[in-house]
Amino acid sequence: MALRKKDLMPTPDLLTDATCPDCRGEHFVIGPRGGLAANVRCAGCGSKFWYCPPFPSERIDNADSFYTQPPIRLRDWQVSD
Fold first, then answer.
1. Per-residue DSSP letters for 11-72?
2. CB–CB of 30/38 below 8 Å?
3. Residue-wise pLDDT tens digits, 8-32
């Protein structure tokens, strides 16, 4: 798989502004999670990230079938949900 320009750019921390760095979307689908961490997929463009406040977010790549919940805003999400 060829690298894309966005793969080489640092990922802004999603915790800071709770938006997708690729499309600026605010809605994400929560995927697999454990402890304080969750994999999230942007509902707008499909970009996927590892999300674990207070740590910086990282890009990930996993199957779309993991994301079955309805989209939410990250700033509204509680770990206990």
1. PPPHHHH-S-TTT---EEEEEEEETTEEEEEETTT--EEEEETTEEEEE----GGG--SPPE
2. yes
3. 555 556 656 788 888 989 999 999 9
Cβ neighbours, 10 Å, residue 62: 13
pLDDT band at 3 (very low <50, low <70, confident <90, very high): low
The pair of three-digit structure tokens given for residue 55, joined into one six-digit string: 């740590």
CB 15 within 8 A of CB 57: yes
Q: How far is CA 61 from CA 20, 52, 58, 65, 81, in A?
A: 15, 16, 10, 12, 23
d(CA 68, CA 10): 27
Find out whether the peptide bond into 54 is cis, omega within 30 degrees of 0.
yes
